[in-house]
Amino acid sequence: MKLGKFLTAPEYRLMVVTYRDIFQSAALENSRFGEEYRKLSAVIRMDSKDIKKMGVTEGGTLVVKNSCGKVVVRVEKSAYDVPHQGVAYMPSSPWSNALVSADTGGTGVPKYKIIEVMVSDARGESITIIGV
Amino acid sequence: MANAMEIYQFLPKTNCKKCGKSTCMAFAVALLSREVTVEYCTPLKETKFKKNYEKLLEIVAPVEGSTETGLIVHEEKCFGCGNCVVACPVNVANDPQGVGIGRAPTNDKVILQVENGIVRASNIQECRRFGKNRILCNLCIITCPTEAIEFV
Amino acid sequence: MVSCLNKNYYVCTGCALLCDDIEVEVSGDQITTIKTACRKGFSRIRGCIEPMPCIVNGKNVDINTAIKDAAKILKNADKPLIFGLGNSTSEAQKQAIKLAKRIDAFIDDTSSFCQGPTLEAILHGKIRTCTLDDVRNRADVIVYWGADPSNSHPRHLSRYSYFPRGEERQRGWEEDRTAIVIDVRKSHTAKICGDKFFQIPLHTDAFFIDALIDALSGKVPNMLFDYDIKNLLKLANILKKAQFGIIFEGFGIYNIEYMETMARLMGKLNEVSNFHLIPMVEHYNMRGFNQNLFEETGFLNRVKFKKCEKGFDVKYGVDYSIMEVLNTKKIDAALIIGSDPMSYLPRSAAEYLLEIPLVSVGPCENFTSRVAKVTIPSALSGVECGGSAVRMDGVKVRFEPIIKRARLSDEEILKRIIEAI
Ligand code: SF4
């Protein structure tokens, strides 16, 4: 756990695992630019202990960033019954891809599945709009 | 939905057999499986049973939004994956060459099928939770990824 | 359209399962009811609310102008890229390959950053595979590895892999089949598999496989990571006893080193029992693209053509992959067909696409088309146009359109671009 460089909200290190969600896929077929797709994509699902530790509110927004990019997404409690502190989940989407490194280490395959990020309270900043 | 014992509490408990069943308890069971209706028990129409009669009507009324077996599909949770369609033993028996092997139904005798991306129930009287020899079958529930099917 | 018992069935192009038992009711040119397709397929068949416009430089134009301008961009480019095609018919893919040869283009698809290595091993006969029909008829041990078909291929379990009865699996899933999930998270599919869910810690796939190989060989596994050895032995035991085993390899895991480890596991499994592997291909005809390009060049993606005396020369390798051509800014124009790299690629790599002229062909507007110089609307395949495609297991599926609308197919558009060059 590191404190932010600037006078902003404290930052926490998390590993983000990306996944597919059928409702998000269905929304994508309907409209990539719609509210529904954005709502189902721009979200990070965390362990409730992590949410509490960070002192953020469920349904509020978080800044998720690393050296590749930064997005603001909504935070939600994950539905998993087993604790997974330090690991969070995001549906694969342009929002998660903004955080994926273009460096493929000579393989041509970006590491989409597991992404290391820093998160902090976005303090009301609204969700990043992508592709309008 | 109540159980047979609760229903029995509101019956005349005289075993008069006017309903065609040998005991009031047997009538309670039949009522539960919708084999008979409250009306079959004529003594209930007597004024002293008026309260019981009304209470019984209330107990056996189907839950709103549910089918007669109490099956509810939470449409907003359903993936339309068809697991329940193919796992349902009645579906398999009624359409072995269609849903039995994972394909679209080939007749309309199936209980569950997917329409517009969401599971839909029909022919509900065929459900194993219904009728005289009913059992507490739960195969459509345990094969659902999201608890979209519920019995109430 | 397949006729069976007097019913007309259509094919869903929502994913690479290509379910061929979809019934529809149509009124005029509207599809009113869609039966048997899952939520994802239903949404696909119903179509999008933001159709691709026909645009050149931000202005609405007729299709002839758009095609002419697209041809001009590609012809004037020194190093054009053709990308996408996972959502196009095989017929369109063949035209795209023809076009690539004509204009000395790079050509690549999404397999470049997902299941390319697995499909390559399969096409070279290095990994044993089978069809989904074999799985339905015979499989008794089914492993979803890093895959969550409930979300990605919703009818996978009900149509082929777990719930249906099959020739040698008459008693149904409860008695005849064992379904297993190996994943880093408890997915919806894992939930259905109950105590046959094996959760492995992040980044330990390779260690896990090595330990599993040890267990299958009867050696004491070398547990280089935090995992309960009892669980591992339980898994090894189930796998060993399989009569017909199948691994469905998902999206969670893939790179070259990983493929070698997986190939070793498959080798071991086939020493001690009987195992097959099918990659969980996502786009309905990605495998078709890989096979079509393979037939033409011997490579399934990451190719660059160059005309020469004997016809054309083919270069292949990571340097020709979409990621590397973007990272090294090797291309100067791109034709994107039925795909949305601005959305699928790491943002920082995709941004180079903003610097070069883009032509985007497809049925719906997407993040890439919004920054393209030329956009050309095409028919939604499986709904507005027919053709053929290759299912995730390599089976070829033909399909007819459900309704006729005026839009040209990708194939027709590509033919006309070739003519105009
Ligand atoms: S599983 Fe795939 S092919 Fe089948 S109906 Fe769903 S989206 Fe369509």
Report on this model:
The complex is a heterotrimer of chains A (132), B (152) and C (421). Chain A is an alpha/beta fold. Chain A has a 6-stranded mixed sheet. Chain B is of the alpha+beta class. Chain B folds into 2 domains: 61 residues, Electron transport complex subunit B, putative Fe-S cluster (3-methyladenine DNA Glycosylase II, Chain A, domain 3, Orthogonal Bundle), CATH 1.10.15.40; 81 residues, Alpha-Beta Plaits, CATH 3.30.70. Helices cover 27% and strands 9% of the residues of chain B. Chain B has 6 helices and 4 strands, in the order H-H-H-E-H-H-E-E-H-E. Chain B has a two-stranded antiparallel ribbon with strand order 1-4. A two-stranded antiparallel sheet of chain B has the order 2-3. The N and C termini of chain B lie close together (6 Å). By secondary structure, chain C is an alpha/beta fold. Chain C folds into 2 domains: 171 residues, Rossmann fold; 164 residues, 3-Layer(aba) Sandwich (Dimethylsulfoxide Reductase, domain 2), CATH 3.40.228. Helix content of chain C is 35%, strand content 21%. Chain C has 17 helices and 20 strands. In chain C, the strands form 5 sheets. Chain C has a 9-stranded mixed sheet with strand order 6-5-18-17-16-7-8-14-15, with helices on one face. A 5-stranded parallel sheet of chain C has the order 11-10-9-12-13. In chain C, helix 2 packs across helix 17. In chain C, 57% of the residues are buried. At the A-C interface, strand 1 and helix 1 of A face helix 1, helix 6, helix 14, helix 15 and helix 16 of C. The site of iron/sulfur cluster (SF4) has 13 residues of chain C, from helix 1.
